[in-house]
Amino acid sequence: MNPPRIILVVLILSTVLSLVAAGYIFVAHENNQPLAAGKLTIYTDDFRSLALSTNMLAGLAADKKVTRVFFDNQCEFLVQAGTQNEESLRQEQPEQVLQTLHQQSIDLGGQVVETMTSLCGYLDNPAVFKQNRDALTGLANQLDELQKQL
Amino acid sequence: MRKYLDLMLGVAAAIGGFLDLGQMLFALQIGAKFAYLQMWVLLLGTIAIIVFMEMSGRIAAVAQQPSFVVIREQLGPRGGWVTLVAATLVNLLTCAAEIGGVGIILKLLLGGSLEWQTALAFVALFLFLMWASFTWVENLFGLLGLLTVVFAVAAYQLHPHWGDVFAGFIPSSPQGPSSDVFFYWYSAVALFSAVLLPYEVYLYSSGAIEDDWDAEELGVNRITTIFGCVFGALLTVALIVIGASIFQPLGMTPQLPGSTIYGSAMVLGKVAGVIALVGMLFAIAGAAVETGLSGAYGIAQFLGWPWGKSRKMKDVRRFTATWMIILAVGAAIILFGVDPVKLVQYVIIISVIPLPLTYYPVLMTASDEKIMGKHKNPRWITIAGWCFFVLTCIATAAAIPLLIVTHGGQG
């Protein structure tokens, strides 16, 4: 066996072994860990990004810079992502010290999804549309404040 | 005309490689999160893919050996099998994500249900591949993928601070909490891996043989790889600029493929938004077709089956059946409910695994005078190749630990 072949065998074996080990550790780690501050920040950041993204889309739609089909379907994807995020967050078991913040995040996330859904249905009603956009901005700010406590 | 067709091979491979579902969204997210701090990673990855793609094209032209013949010869049966399995898995999952991506873009363009649009995407790509020759594949997706140039126009119109953009090409160490530092390096590894996705090399070397290249095409090979990859990299820069200009000031991360067109629509209007979507459609569809074909090329070449998209289907039955199965299984994965965006984020990281196993044999073969004769690597290319090979090994070793500490690459 010449030296390059030995290097290759080691490379292949270590790659396969590290993959298997890493996969196992990853799944076990993610399933067993209680929700920590870092992961809760990711959830709240996702809600905040979804709220701001929907607001940005609403601005483009109001200025007639995207088609109606794009607006409706992108809205659907955004609401779906928000709903999935909310469901995942509800299933998390937070660390003892994070229980209040966890609940606040669920409440704010739920409001974000509700407001996004409402905004997406009222493109033709400028007054309600604007009201929902303002509400989303407010919710994004509240999520920002909540993140600072994490 | 011949030169134009040769050039389209590089453009098609580069558009598929640089502008697939994962990399478009990922570039936008990198811009939103780190502004221009990871331009140096893109530069490094682009030079690396040019070096390896040029080598694989040269091997195909001179020795008439496509990538998986080279891999089998250099790694032997066992090493070759490991590479084949890893590469096929990456190709299959990437193909699945891209088919799902085409479904998403069709829904954003035409409406309807995502499941129906994904099924439509599968049927359309399947029928197209049944009918089309390799020349059609490279031309259709290469040409219509050019519509993504609208991203470059939008990025320019956003008037970024060019000094900051160019400063990003100088490597810098991230600052802030450790989670940010880990995420920075996770993103760097993922970007490097996304640029170096091995299917580009499988497709490119197989395409060179499909296009009947010989030693006379070595100049074209060099120009094609440089032009195609630089073009793809510039469009990636444009997406990073868009991410940094419109998402970073709000401190938000774009999470959906549709967010990619916000910048174009914002500065250029509705028509530009539609053009961007159509460009994305063909770029992602091209990536779906190319990953499907790459999987079939790899298996057929490794097992010594007759192969070639330009040959009659009845002459290459097992090759044809393989790409059909990859496309069908890919579509089934998405239709059973797997999220293509999440899938592609994992695939980008997993794809670092076949990187060293693909590029090592290419490097060894291109440096071998017995095989390449006077067309073997110049010394500086060999040195550059080894440096990039070491980098791919480091990326492979770091990828999974970084995936874990960043909660699956979420932050």
Amount of beta strand of chain A: under 5%
Major sheet size, sense and barrel closure of chain B: none
| Structural class by sheet pairing and helices of chain A | mainly alpha
Most extensive chain interface and residues per partner:
A-B, 42 and 47 residues
Q: Could you say which overall geometry of chain B the principal axes of the C-alpha atoms support?
A: globular
Q: Cα distance, first to last residue of chain A?
A: 56 Å
> What average pLDDT do the residues of chain B reach?
91
The oligomeric status of these chains comes to heterodimer
Descriptive overview:
The complex is a heterodimer of chains A (150) and B (411). Chain A has 150 residues and is an all-alpha fold. Chain A has 5 helices and no strands. Chain A has helices at residues 3-32, 37-62, 68-91, 99-121, 126-149. In chain A, α2 (37-62) packs antiparallel against α5. Chain A is flat, with a radius of gyration of 22 Å. The model of chain A has no long low-confidence stretch (mean pLDDT 86). The mean pLDDT of chain B is 91. Chain B has helices at residues 2-18, 21-34, 39-63, 67-110, 114-131, 134-145, 149-157, 162-167, 178-195, 199-210, 218-247, 262-268, 270-303, 317-335, 340-350, 354-366, 369-372, 379-405. The N and C termini of chain B lie far apart (48 Å). Chain B is globular. Chain A binds chain B through residues 4-5, 8-9, 11-12, 15-16, 18-19, 22, 25-26, 29-30, 38-39, 41-42, 45-46, 48-50, 52-53, 56-57, 60, 64-67, 69-70, 72-74, 77-78, 81, 144, and chain B through 75-76, 78-79, 82, 104, 107-111, 179, 246, 250-256, 258-259, 261-262, 265-266, 269-270, 273-274, 277, 353, 356-357, 360, 364, 393, 396-397, 400-401, 403-404, 407-408, 410-411.
